[in-house]
Amino acid sequence: MLTGSCLCEGVRYELDGELGALGYCHCKQCQRASGSAFAANTSVAKSALRFVSGEELLREYESSPGRFRAFCSRCGSPVYKRVLEQPDSVRIRLGSLDGDPQLRARVHIWVSAKAPWYEITDSLPQLPEGLPPRK
Questions:
Q1: Can you list the domains of the chain with their CATH numbers?
Q2: pLDDT at position 135
Q3: In 13-135, alpha helices (H)
């Protein structure tokens, strides 16, 4: 079981399920949503996410058609993203976790939109766009 929260700790949650692969997304939306060069995200089954407190503080913003980014309305911290086409999962912002998820990044995506002031110095694969569709 993992726990997490927003910056003000008004929104607190638990994750009780297997996490997907960890990736760094360099798309412009993730840059703007995180206020940084990239966002560190992983997927988890929606049924594995349980809000302990502050669910009423969450607000969603439809950043593009069918894609909703949830954040704390008090402190602005991003918490998760959900996609209508994938109703059974959410993408958790790893910076909101309290502990180590025991995952390490496997890939950089949307490197074609990478912030020009950030240099990728690790040896992870760098994809110009998103992950290829699953077969």
A1: 2-113 (2.170.150.70)
A2: 60
A3: 28-34
